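anyone seen this seq b4? input:
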Amino acid sequence: MNNKALSFLILAAALACLFSGCAYMKDRGNDLIDIMDLGITVNDKIEPQFGLYIDFFNILPLGYSHIEAKTIGFGNRQGGWLYYADDSWGVIFWGREMKALGEFNPKDPHRTRKDQREATEWPYYNVGLARMISEDDSPPTAQFIECQRVLHLGWIGIFAHLRPIDVVDFILGWTTLDIVGDDNITE
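predicted toks r here
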């Protein structure tokens, strides 16, 4: 490729970014921060709480977690000192979970299915391969490709949620493809 063709491509890319509008770049930033939720949990009550729970792509849940606390962290496109709740249990192929982080947005495809867009509180979902096959109430499609880790002992803990599908959504988003369906979601 000669210098003129390369210069033209760089100029065209720069103009496309310049005139694409603020919404386009905001969606790319949101796609980037959707990749991971991370934080330190801290009880806001005197009684101790417990959580030791891992879940591989909502197919293999293992452990138990019953936490209602605060977190210093980020997730669900929010950051700072946020509300955090995790009420989950799993035995390999069978389980149920509810995850809450920050303010609830029923239009977020990571948190609710299309048939739940009018929900007013954080929903519970069946997880585990056997339970999702045998019963209704499966997680949203965007949540299927998600790894969750929670460790909370007593009054402090840590959580991390990784969403590999959002890595792909971030990369494809630059071409205006939105495979997760989370661009332009509003409260």
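Residues 35-173 form one domain. The radius of gyration is 19 Å. kinda curious what u guys think
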